[in-house]
Give the backbone structure.
Amino acid sequence: MANAVHSQYKNLRFTHLSTADGLSRSHVTCSSQDARGFMWFGTSNGLNRYDGYDFSIYTYHQNDPYSISHNYISSICQDADGKMWVGTSDGLNVYDHAMHHFETFKHSDEHPGSISDDQIEAIIQDRRGRLWIGTRNGGVDRYDSETGQFIHYQHEDGRSGISGNDVRVLFEDSGNRLWLGHWNGGIDIYEEQTDTFVPLFEDQRLTQSGIMDMAELDSCLWIGTQSDGLYKIDLRDLRLSAVTHYRQSGENSLASNSVLSLMPDKDGHLWIGTENGGLDVLDVNRNVFYHNQVDPFDPGGLDSQFCLFNLQGSVG
């Protein structure tokens, strides 16, 4: 580790949006910006669309088949056609901008081509246009838009090769490789030729902690975990011996071993959202951590030590 220690990064200033501004719940779980410029925020009590002035809130209504299927929003993904896919604790939804309503996909034991599980954890569209859905209990699904069916990749099927059925992270790197991160600490890579997943390390998990997020920066894959800090994997050398592990161990280190979210910027910094440690920024080239934590006397600073962001794209 480098010897230099910096407490703040460029005197960051934050604009706060809260329930006082119309947000449905202060517990924000995910976010995305669509092609129209609207910001979408998933919360534990509904989906919010923000136009820069006001919030439109979408919540579940029992007697409305076109409402969103559940109020806990776990993931948001805009596809290449501009459709907003929304994962919830009870079903996958796609928003129809023209009709202003949702179509819902749910599991059915009577229909093998239905989604494998209703608890959605992650959604991504890869560069080939395929939509992948990570679930809590059913592995990962790939949606076939032509048939409206879901193709299942599960731990028990003896074919797909995935490390477990609780898939929390989906990530595609610059080499078009699709990565899965599991709650059990396993990591898998999709093999295009065989249409299967293979574990990153054949006989060993990266960690015993849940995988929370992934990001690519400086030819490396960065992996945040629920309680075991941050890992760096050189994408040119996928051996376990080449892995670098960052943990809370002093001033020039992570502020917390619970890494919730990761975002690279164009200047070679990795933004790290933590639980109970605020926001860290890692200068990858200098190997220096900057810490940004709550200051109750600074109205433009962080207002919580719990920092989660997963806005599609990159900072700066």
Observations:
- The chain has a mean pLDDT of 88.
- The two ends are 26 Å apart (CA to CA).
- The CA atoms of residues 63 and 163 lie 39 Å apart.
- The longest strand covers residues 211-217.
